[in-house]
Amino acid sequence: MKLLKLTINDNSQQHFRSLYPGFTIQFHSYEDVDWDKFNPFCLVGVNGTGKSNVLEALASIFFHLECCSCKFLPDNFDFNPEEGFPDAYFLEYLIQDWNGRYNIENYVHVQITKEAGRVPSLYIKEYGNPASPFRRIDILAPTDENGKRIEAAPGKNYLPDIIAGYSSGENEILSIPFRKSRLINFDKYRNDFENGLEFQYPENSLIYIDEGMSQAVLLSCLLFENRETTLSFLTRELGIEDIVSFRMNINMQILSNHITSEKAPFVTDHISNKINILKGCATCWYQTHEHTPGNPESPPSVLVLDFLVDANTRRAFSKMFGSAFDCFRFFQVLYELNYNFIGEDIKQDIYKSKGVYTHGKMPDANPLQDVFHFLDFMIKKNIKEDSGSKELLLREFSDGEHQLLHAMGICLMLKNRNALLLLDEPETHFNPEWRSKFIQILEGCLKNGGDNNLTKDILLTSHSAYIISDCPSDKVIIFRRDKDNKVHARKAAESGYQTYGTSVNTLTSNIFQETSTIGKYSLDKINKYRKELKEGKKLKDIIEDINRELGDSIEKLLLIYEFSNQEDDAHTI
Description:
- The chain is an alpha/beta fold.
- Among the domains are: 196-418, no CATH class; 524-572, no CATH class.
- It has helices at residues 51-69, 172-194, 211-224, 232-238, 272-281, 311-321, 324-336, 344-352, 358-361, 399-413, 432-448, 465-468, 504-512, 520-534, 539-549, 554-572, and strands spanning 2-8, 24-26, 41-44, 89-96, 107-114, 121-126, 135-137, 162-167, 206-208, 240-252, 284-287, 301-308, 372-383, 388-393, 419-424, 456-462, 476-481, 487-491.
- The strands form three sheets. It has a seven-stranded mixed sheet with strand order 9-8-15-16-3-17-18, sandwiched between helices.
- A hairpin with a 5-residue loop joins β17 (476-481) and β18.
- The radius of gyration is 27 Å and the shape is globular.
- The protein starts with a strand and ends with a helix.
- This is Conserved domain protein.
């Protein structure tokens, strides 16, 4: 998938966050020739200029399109296909034809237009054929005479396979459509079970990578991917040599809406076959006790599965799932069963919510309410300071190490899939070395995994000049507010800025309008020295204070040079 253009057309009373009517962001150009190169888009600018709002808008748009086109929607979700958020927009991208090979000749040009208060319209045409007309594809799922959806709409074939979201900070707004998607996935799981339908992986394409999902991503990669090639960056950058062991806890809860029934089904009954296969993959397992049917006060029994990972474990998982992605999808299903305890009234409230407090509407589960979680995730890690390897719990890793694992794992999981990755400030916990190597590491892990860069687009927001310096100027989009406080996005190339290979000081000055190379507190100290000289303090004493109190910097050298010139001028007079 390759994004081309996004325009927000909401009216002035209903603009999307900081993005006012007419806001346009140009991604790839239709005439680009570097489709197969790894070139993520880097959205930059000072705080509050709307960078993250673009990620939020794309996530919200694709959530609405998914709900328009999917086969299943919960009965308690009063979805209106004519009402989106943003409610009016134009979105344009290229995507692989659903039955074609991964090369640019098999891509189609997609245009989606939504007018306020109307259903979106999706059009496609052949890529590279100017004479080919756009033709309209139905985006609304067909229904029977009772309004029940029969199948997914044809337009769903031209949406991304996966939209993955990740935020290192507290961007709860980005997570809103992803959290709604999790609730939909759970309701579909329950609906399929209650109606005797065969188990299927989630239909919805939105996946949010939080702590739990990140563990699932990492485990899937460590069990399936080649450690010498695909995962070599884990050893090189993080010292991770292998996974040693892990535990899975599955609380055998009663399926919601059946709690008081004497023949109440367990929430995991729909996947009992896969649970039994997991038992066969485990080194050992046990179940704590039998649950008492019909007694809501009876605590759920817990199925505990322990895995001591070796070649046999990997073969067993490979036979069960076939690929790292399918393994992850099953873990995703298990994690989404954790929404079993959320009541229908709360779900309905969340489905209707558009605001910044949506996350607060979703209650936190206590340990007994969770259906699934990993425990004792043990990693063999090379510790340079100790000159040897050590077994560590994954929870003992630093924030920066977790953050790097999030980003790398997401890229590996989605290789060779039509995917859009929305990464909101993925480098906030990195040390300077990792910030300077982040783009290189991303490209390396995708290349080692044999990925085709045609299949995905990566959008990341950042305040790091190191990351900007590894991105071509036509892939760096600068956000600024005008005198009327409206946000505008413009490529660095259009502003005459060369970003690729440019020093971080120059980028910090040009993009963030910060000319100082030292902190404001120490800069105030420099101004204090100027004041002392004016008040008559001896220059020799001031120079001694400067050398004693300040480290090396351009500002320090310029100050000493300035004072020296003043002394020379005084002698001349």
